[in-house]
Amino acid sequence: MLEDSLLDEYEKKEKCGVFGIWGPKEAAQITYTGLFAQQHRGQESAGIAVTDGKDLNGHTGMGLVSQVFTPRMLREELAGTGAIGHVRYSTTGSSKLANAQPLLREFSLGPVAVAHNGNLINAQLLRKEYEAHGHIFQSTTDTEIIVHLLAKPSHASKADPLIHVLKHLQGAFSLLFLFPDRIEACRDPYGIRPLALGRTREGHWCVASETCAFDAIDAEYVRDIEPAEIVRIDDSGVSTRKYDVPAPELAQCMFEHVYFSNPASKIFGQNVHITREAMGRQLAREAPVKADFVMPMPDSGRSAALGFSKESKIDFEEGIVPNRFVGRTFILPGQAARDKAVAVKLNIIPDVVRDKRVVIVEDSVVRGTTTRSKMRAIRRAGAKEIHLRVSCPPIRHPCFYGIDFPTNQELIAYNRTVQEVADFLEVDSLAYLSLEGMAACMRGQPKDYCSACWSGHYKIPIDQPQSKFYFERDQLKMF
Ligand SMILES: O=P(O)(O)OC[C@H]1O[C@H](OP(=O)(O)OP(=O)(O)O)[C@H](O)[C@@H]1O
Ligand SMILES: NC(=O)CC[C@H](N)C(=O)O
Ligand code: SF4
Ligand SMILES: [Mg+2]
């Protein structure tokens, strides 16, 4: 039933965001706001862990930040002066409470809470090894192995156990650890996912996946946590150490700029909206077309459409209206749910498109859910010509580093030429931004970004089988 799957959808969306703050009396309330600002990064579950200086306490729940916490809970049960929080979009392990983060555990050195954005590609190997030694896991996420690594006696006895643990991890990880006396914020040596350091007006240090969280709590963005860096935040302030050397070539995820991040955020040192606008301009130069107007595919297609319009000097027109109560559709679990969400999310305005030659600018076409549904709807609404322009190249390869499209069969451009995709979508023309054109819009050198889902070049080799549900008991039978 449409209503049932929509109810489901509202509860399960997008990717992961982390937030942490040290020092204020109302640490949990501020963390709530920091998570709320990053709700677009994960809507399956949310959690906050706090410290009172001696012990940790935490709460996790399924759904949106606003559904998981009450003001009283934040004020009383989660009272403390240091906190970390997480909003989850699952990449390993199903969407269930046991997998909600921060994971809160006790080990020989005391309590620890962990919040993870990214995806480990060696979690299966490590977990098999630990299970063979009798370790009992309580979740089916990749993240839990990190706590087991920390608890291993030969690791816990090291002068700096965290450094030792991080060296074992492969893949994407922007991590926050909360101990009773400190927060430790770490980024993998490739810098795949973002992680930024900020400071409030009162002088409290904070960390977040995206800088839009700092705006929400009136803090200033200080700098990014560097690849292979650990930043420790405690009562004496901030200190930094390297646990490894940054990779010779970084792998910052270009898809963060194309689609994931909030346009107001600064990701990998550059503003997302301005980057998307530059991509739209570049696309207009690479694939010009005669048309009556340029129309964005809301919401994330807006900035690139603006750039396309400015560069081509073709008017900008809104002809697709998003329902503000439907979130992002791309990462909803299950194709039926995605199809239904797209149907209810985007309304075409026939009076705008009728008898017109329209350029539609979309930030990305992944499974083709949005475009399959909307190109035909625009045609039915009477458009004379439909020219689809996409502000990234065709996505033909899976992502194993924290974005949930782990098989190539689900990708619309897999095994299809651009013309075949155009025919499938029944558009008059289709053009994608080139890989070089997209890379040219990035502030850093092209070699310092990951583009594996477009190029097939995985900087961290995928040499073990990967599956989102590897640790689920019923799925294990498949292997
Ligand atoms: O080809 P697909 O599988 O449909 O995936 C790509 C689409 O999904 C995303 O939109 P989404 O609705 O998630 O979020 P938005 O409102 O930020 O554009 C993205 O902006 C594309 O529109
Ligand atoms: N999107 C993410 O960063 C997910 C974090 C972690 N891999 C999980 O599935 O819980
Ligand atoms: S494969 Fe694509 S989505 Fe995944 S990290 Fe690389 S650029 Fe980002
Ligand atoms: Mg979209």
From TrEMBL:
Active site: 16 (nucleophile)
Gene name as annotated: purF
Protein name: Amidophosphoribosyltransferase
Family note: In the C-terminal section; belongs to the purine/pyrimidine phosphoribosyltransferase family.
GO molecular function per UniProt: 4 iron, 4 sulfur cluster binding; amidophosphoribosyltransferase activity; metal ion binding
Keyword Iron-sulfur: yes
Pfam families per the UniProt record, alphabetical: GATase_7
HAMAP family attached to this UniProt entry: PurF
Cofactor annotation comment: Binds 1 [4Fe-4S] cluster per subunit.
Binding site for [4Fe-4S] cluster: 253, 399, 450, 453
Cofactor: [4Fe-4S] cluster
GO terms under biological process: 'de novo' IMP biosynthetic process; purine nucleobase biosynthetic process
EC number(s) reported in the record: 2.4.2.14
Pathway stated in the Swiss-Prot or TrEMBL entry: Purine metabolism; IMP biosynthesis via de novo pathway; N(1)-(5-phospho-D-ribosyl)glycinamide from 5-phospho-alpha-D-ribose 1-diphosphate: step 1/2
Coiled-coil region list: none
